[in-house]
Amino acid sequence: MRNRWDEVREAPADGDRLDQCVHVSRLLGADPDLVLHGGGNTSVKTMRQDALGNDVATLLVKGSGWDLATIERPGFAPLRLERLREILGAESLSDSAMMNELRCALLDARAPDPSVETLLHALIPETFVLHTHADAVLTLTNLDDGEARIRAALGDDLIVIPYVMPGFDLAKHCRDLLGGVTGPMPQTMVLMCHGVFTYGESARAAYGRMIEIVGRAEQYIAEHTNAARPTAQTNAARPTAQTEAAPDIRGTAPDALELASLRQAVSRVAGAPMIATRAADPASTAFCRRPDLATVSQRGPATPDHVIRTKRLPMVGRDVGAYAKEYVAYYESQESGVSQESDSANAPMTMLDPAPRIALDPELGVIAFGRRPKDAAIAADVYGHTIGVIEHAEQLGGYRALSPEDIFAVEYWELEQAKLRRAGSPPEFAGEVALVTGAASGIGKACVEALLGRGAAVVGLDVDAGVTTTASGPDYLGVVADVTDPAAVQDAIARAVDRFGGIDMLIASAGVFGASRPISDFDPRQWRSTLSVNTDAFADLLAQLHGLLKLAPRYGRVVLIGSKNAAAPGPGAAAYSASKAAATQLARVAALEWASDGIRVNIVHPDAVFDTGLWTPDVVEARAAHYGMTVEQYKQRNLLHTEVTSEIVGTLVADVCGPSFRATTGAQIPVDGGSDRII
Question: Ketoreductase domain: which residues (predicted)?
Answer without folding.
Answer: 432-602
